[in-house]
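User: I'm preparing a small set of examples for a lab meeting where we compare how different chains pack in three dimensions. I only have the primary sequence for this one, and I'd like the structure in C-alpha cell form so I can line it up with the others. Please keep the answer compact; I'll paste it straight into my notes.
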Amino acid sequence: MRRILILAYGLVLCGCAEPPAHDTTGVVPGVDSPPAAVLLPDYEKLSNLGLLSRKGTVKVGMTREEALDMFVEPPGSYEKSDLPPSIAAPFEAFAWQTRTEGFGMILYQNKVGAAVHEIDKVTPDRLDEVVRAYQSQYGPAFTHLQGRHVEYWFWQSRSQAGRGDHLLMVTKVQAKPNLLNITEAIGTVPVMEALRMTEQSANGDLARADRMLDEQRPKNGKS
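Assistant: Understood. Below is the C-alpha cell output for the 223-residue chain.
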C-alpha cells in the first residue's frame, strides 16, 4: 500500500502500509518538524457520515473494538501502532495490514478520530461499486477531483460552506493498467487535515501524484 505514501496520506505512515522503495519524505510538508497540535475530537458532535463495510458503518466516536467488529482483522495480517509524524499524543494509532487490504485508526480516548480502509489491485467495477454505495447512502459528493491517474470524492457533514465537523473521502489511484487501489477514510476535519486527507490537500497533491505515477508508468506498464 505504498501509493498512499506517494500521495502523502498520513495514516499509512502510522503503519497501514509497507515502506516505499524510494524516499518520499519530501512529499509530506513538515514531516521533519514537531507535529502541530491537532484539535481533539468532540465526540458529542454527531454525523451520519461513516466508513461503509459489509458488517456495518464505522463512525467518528465509535470505540476501537466496535470499529474492528466492522473491519475484522484477517488471519495472517500484521499490526502497527505508530502515529504518523503529523499527529502526536494524546492520540494513539492502530492498524492491520495484509498484502491487499489494510485498515487503520487514529484514536483518542480509545475512540475513532479517523479511520482508513484500503484495498489493492481491484477492477474499475469495484470502484464503481464503492462510489455508488456512498452516493446511495450520502448523496452526491460535495467535491469531485480527477487527474490522469488519481481521483477523489469528498462528503462533509452539515454543509460544504459550513465546514462540517466530519469529512469522508474516497480516493482511486490507478497505479497499473486496469488495476486500481482504493482508499476510504472518515474523520474529524482537524484530524483529516493533519493526515492531508482533505479537498484542500488533494488540490495541491493531485498534479504531484499524477507526475510521480507517470514516472512509474513505464515500469508498472510491463506488469
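A couple of notes for your slides: The chain is about 25% helix and 30% strand. Confidence is low (pLDDT under 50) at residues 1-32.

User: Perfect, thanks.
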